[in-house]
């Protein structure tokens, strides 16, 4: 039964290729889709599948993440018993890996009444029905079920993600990395279903041996000692592990079919409510194929772009194929093409910023141009 499962969101994610947007926040807290955060998808997937006990494990730069999730109310997780638990290890002087974080909070695992665990990262953006995956896991009666996506665009997408090598019975034989050499791949979504007892055993093994860097690494290196099966997810998926992937994921949301699937296919994606006023469009504004959040003022041209809350686009300004995050001001006659602008940036009059489809220009938080 689904009420016998708890969720763990492990935010020990590689931020190397998206560092421009993670200097002041964890990857999970990056704004996406005009009014969401990346973690909203992982949290909503678990809640929509009936999980009511979810732990978030994070450490550095967690202020914005903690502020966003709060008590878990938007996801109906402000409850007793269970609910949302945030374990923030940011006060430590040295960085911890995920097994050390989990080991330091094993009391949470022991005290949780659920006997099974869904372990997930946050940067896999999709809308997944965990109930179907749990049914598959219980029918197979394996130690671990890992969820994967079969793709045919591996040379361009999901670079540096884990790749599953599986046999005809969906048994996982080994795990590698996507180096971009092949198109047809089985991409691990870094979502694992297992018994809580096994999870604690793997954490203990990792800590005692000292030979594994992460829990994921522990599972991968012990494939031959465990029975690991793979469950295929067939919906829309992107891994936001680089600036290019972040840009592509946002641009994909401009397609109505993708938006409907991503935000509604297996339940809605929830986020923190800000109660901003409706966006104001002047008579001279022109907006085409864009997503614009509430609380904005649009006087200029916006085309194929994602505009977050509280953005002011002045008269004569032109924004195309760009992502503008919260509380930015784009002044008169500025031109922005293929640009990602972080929060609280002011672009002065008559400025022109140009990026590229493959390599968008990133303007960091609170910059002034």
Describe the structure.
By secondary structure, the protein is α/β, with parallel strands linked by helices. The protein has 2 domains: 2-264, Alpha-Beta Complex (Spore Coat Polysaccharide Biosynthesis Protein SpsA, Chain A), CATH 3.90.550; 280-363, Hexapeptide repeat proteins (UDP N-Acetylglucosamine Acyltransferase, domain 1), CATH 2.160.10. Helix content is 22%, strand content 28%. The protein has 9 helices and 28 strands. The chain has helices at residues 39-48, 63-69, 98-103, 106-111, 130-140, 196-209, 215-221, 243-252, 256-264, and strands at 5-10, 31-32, 36-37, 53-58, 83-88, 116-120, 124-126, 144-151, 162-166, 172-177, 185-195, 228-232, 237-239, 280-281, 286-288, 291-292, 297-298, 301-303, 306-307, 312-313, 318-320, 323-324, 329-330, 335-337, 339-341, 346-347, 352-354, 361-363. Strands 5-4-1-6-11-8-12 form a 7-stranded mixed beta sheet. Strand 9 and strand 10 form a beta hairpin. The longest helix has 14 residues, at 196-209. It is globular. It starts with a strand and ends in a 6-residue tail after the last strand. The mean pLDDT is 92. InterPro entries: ADP-Glc_PPase (IPR011831), GlgDAde_trans (IPR011832), GlmU/GlgC-like_hexapep (IPR056818), NTP_transferase_dom (IPR005835).
**What is the CATH-assigned architecture of the largest domain?**
Alpha-Beta Complex
Number of helical stretches of at least 4 residues:
9
How far apart the termini lie comes to 55 Å
Order of strands side by side in the largest beta sheet? 5-4-1-6-11-8-12
The level 1 CATH classification of the largest domain is Alpha Beta
**What structural category do the secondary elements indicate?**
alpha/beta
CATH-derived topology of the largest domain: Spore Coat Polysaccharide Biosynthesis Protein SpsA, Chain A
Family: Belongs to the bacterial/plant glucose-1-phosphate adenylyltransferase family.
EC number: 2.7.7.27
Organism: Clostridium frigoriphilum
Domain Nucleotidyl transferase: 19-149
């Amino acid at each position: 039964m689904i009420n016998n499962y708890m969720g763990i969101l492990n935010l020990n994610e590689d931020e190397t290729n998206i560092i421009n947007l993670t200097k002041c926040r964890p990857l999970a807290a990056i704004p996406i889709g005009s009014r969401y955060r990346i973690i909203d998808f992982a949290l909503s997937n678990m809640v929509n599948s009936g999980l009511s006990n979810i732990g978030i494990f994070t450490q550095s730069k967690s202020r914005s993440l903690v502020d966003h999730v709060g008590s878990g109310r938007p996801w109906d997780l402000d409850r007793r018993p269970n609910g949302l638990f945030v374990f923030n290890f940011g006060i430590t002087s040295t960085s911890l890996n995920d097994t050390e974080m989990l080991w330091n909070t094993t009391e949470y695992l022991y005290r949780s009444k659920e006997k099974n665990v869904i372990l997930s990262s946050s940067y896999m953006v999709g809308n997944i029905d965990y109930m179907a995956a749990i049914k598959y896991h219980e029918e197979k009666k394996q130690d671990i079920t890992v969820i994967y996506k079969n793709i045919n665009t591996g040379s361009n997408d999901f670079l540096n993600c884990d790749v599953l090598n599986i046999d005809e019975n969906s048994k996982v034989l080994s795990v590698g990395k996507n180096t971009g050499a092949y198109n047809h791949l089985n991409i691990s979504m870094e979502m694992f279903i297992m018994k809580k007892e096994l999870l604690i055993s793997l954490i203990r093994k990792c800590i005692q041996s000292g030979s594994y860097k992460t829990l994921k690494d522990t599972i991968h290196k012990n494939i031959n000692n465990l029975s690991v099966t793979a469950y295929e997810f067939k919906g829309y998926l992107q891994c936001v592990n680089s600036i290019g992937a972040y840009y592509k994921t946002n641009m994909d949301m401009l397609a109505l079919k993708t938006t409907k699937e991503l935000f509604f296919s297996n339940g809605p994606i929830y986020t923190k409510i800000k109660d901003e006023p409706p966006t104001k469009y002047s008579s001279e504004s022109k907006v085409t194929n864009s997503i614009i959040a509430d609380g904005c003022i649009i006087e200029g041209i916006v085309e194929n772009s994602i505009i977050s809350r509280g953005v002011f686009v002045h008269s004569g300004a032109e924004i195309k194929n760009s992502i503008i995050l919260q509380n930015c001001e784009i002044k008169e006659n500025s031109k922005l093409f293929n640009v990602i602008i972080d929060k609280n940036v002011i672009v002065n009059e008559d400025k022109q910023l140009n990026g590229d489809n493959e390599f968008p220009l990133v303007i960091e938080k609170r910059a002034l141009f």
